[in-house]
Amino acid sequence: MEYGAAAAGTGQLDLADRAWNKALELEPGNSENLLQVGHQYKSLRQPEKARAWYEKASAADLKSINPRMALAILAEQNHSFAEAREAVASCLAIDPRDDQARYYAAFLDRREGKMEDAERQLRDLIASDPRHQYVQYASRYELAEVLNRTGRFDEAMQVLIEAKDMVRRLGNIDVMLKEYDREAGQYAQSSRELPKNILRTWAREFPERTRYATLKLVFLGGHPRSGTTLLEQILGAHPDVAALDESQAFTMIVAKLFNESQQISPARLNVIRRRYLEAVQREWGSDLKGKLLLDKNPSPTAKLRIWLRVFPELRVLIALRDPRDVVISCYFQNLPLNAYSANFLTLERTARHYADLMDVWLAVRQWESLTWMETRYEDTVADLEKEGRRVNGFLGLEWDEAQGRFQEKSGNKQMYSPTYRDASQPVYARSVARWHAYEKYLTPILPILEPYCQAFGY
To answer: In angstroms, rounded to a whole number, what is the distance separating the alpha carbons of residues 442 and 327?
Structure first.
């Protein structure tokens, strides 16, 4: 089991397969091991293999709920609601009072627009004082979203505050935020201090003729909840685009290798470029020849100086959205607790997180010879094809009719962004100017956001 995990961590997936299959041979009835292998495959973005191991785990223990819940979650993420319902039903047949299964049944109701059923089940679950720690706060996050969708904004905010109070008890938030502040400060300061002609300097130090050949590469960034996933889905519907949804390749390879050494020679940069492309190829799974490679991931916007040092030819596409809408949308997100997501436990920290990330972009976009473009979420919602054609032009692409029907493709593939549920639907306008419903809660932090509203024209 451990050998397989180590092999997977170094990208040796064939070796991981052999190790895990040997574990299965040695102990075929160990449901927990089988479940853990399924989780490994899911983290490796191989959902079909994950499904197969979850099914093995379920068969090995006919009374085990966890592998059946894993199947339900995997099915929902692939938009297979009937399959997800069936898996949840099998959990409830084992234990009608199981916290996870009851929560997920309500979650599926909300996903399918059954707001009354979802609210009833969530209130019953909360009233029963669930023992499962995740369910305690996740059920409140989900109820807050139901209340938001049904126009009960004050009640939604109060339930959300309850959820966040529970999350704060899960770890040392002060330590997490100090860790975030240290790293965010380093990236912001280093980006501001670089001269505006830095790209010309880097190009001289790493001329095109010496670079390991890559595909035409585009980074799609911006702050989370600014419409990056929607834009990635529209662009990814084009037949000439290979769009990566929050790939781990930059963070796990490019940033990691770049920061491990002070040596920034062309030879080292080429090693990083090659390793990145190998990882992307493994993740994509099919031929990338002739494709435009679109790497969408909001958080690495803070690390644009690394992107551009390793890939001087990079095109940068930044998604914008009204900063006030971004903040309230981030605040509603139920994300795993870490140094990054700890910022979203208060509105003030959420606003400061927005400022940290967008300060980097405001500094980088002043660099001479940078190939960049900003696109506004509101413009896409107002006229998808018009804005889509404008973005396509920046990328050197003709408009393809499939891009106007992007949700047809999105609804048939695994997505990894926390916002995958929204991006698999046709474009809707309900999220534009959403912040007005929560204006009284946002009033204390509006001074933080005002400079960015002005800078981006909101």
So the answer is: 9
Tokens of 100: 């996870």
Residue pair 222/319 in contact (Cβ under 8 Å)? The answer is yes
CB atoms within 10 A of CB 52: 15
pLDDT, one tens digit per residue, over 143-184 is 999 999 999 999 999 999 999 999 999 999 999 999 999 999
Q: Counting runs of H as helices and runs of E as strands, what totals does the chain give?
A: 25, 5
Whether residue 160 contacts residue 331, with contact meaning beta carbons closer than 8 Å, is answered with yes
What angle do helix axes 133-149 and 99-111 make, rounded to 10 degrees? 20
Spatial distance between the Cα atoms of 41 and 53, rounded to a whole number of angstroms: 9
Whether the full predicted model's pTM is greater than 0.85, yes or no, is yes
Token pair, residue 370, equals 């940078």
Q: What amino acid is encoded at 82 in this protein?
A: A
Model confidence at 249: pLDDT above 70: yes
| Half-sphere exposure at residue 378, Cβ-oriented, CA atoms within 13 angstroms | 13
| Domain annotation for the chain: domains and CATH numbers | 1-96 (1.25.40.10), 105-170 (1.25.40), 173-456 (3.40.50.300)
Q: In whole angstroms, give the CA distance from residue 443 to residue 358.
A: 20
Q: What digits encode the pLDDT tens for the residues 85-101?
A: 999 999 999 999 999 99
Spatial contact of 105 and 121, defined as CB atoms under 8 Å apart: yes
> Where does residue 319 fall: left (phi above 0), alpha (psi -120 to 50 degrees), or beta otherwise?
beta
Contact (Cβ atoms closer than 8 angstroms) between residue 368 and residue 199: yes
Element (H, E) at 219: strand 216-222
More confident residue, 141 or 247: 141
384 burial (CB, 10 Å; 0-12 / 13-18 / 19+) is middle
Start-end of H helices in 285-340: 304-310, 323-331
- Look at residue 425 in the predicted model and tell me its pLDDT: 57
Query: Is pLDDT at 275 greater than 90 in this prediction?
Result: yes
Q: What share of the chain is helix, strand, coil (3-state, %, to 5)?
A: 65, 5, 25
